[in-house]
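Quick start: read one record
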Amino acid sequence: MSFIVSFFSSKHGHATPKTEKKGMAYNMTLQQGKLDITDRVVGKLQNGEIVLYLENEKIGKVTLPSGSDMQLEHHFESAGEKIFQLVSTPSSDEPRYTDCDEGGWC
């Protein structure tokens, strides 16, 4: 089954697809609808706003009131508009880990 879809302008200025199948013509109207994308939206903190993105497309923003305070979990902190994760890293090489060969044998 093959279809050919072409668009033409109606008298109201809307593009309406016209579909043809084996010499028969069908007109279909495209309807506007809503698609829930809430769980796919991410926000990035920029200049006192949370900029909203769907994949790589900017879709809006939330303006934060001046003096807003960020409440983060205990292993995160903020400074200015940056958010940091607190991690534990060794401060210097410990001798027991420096004499290992490339295969991981010490």
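The chain has two domains: 1-30, 40-85.
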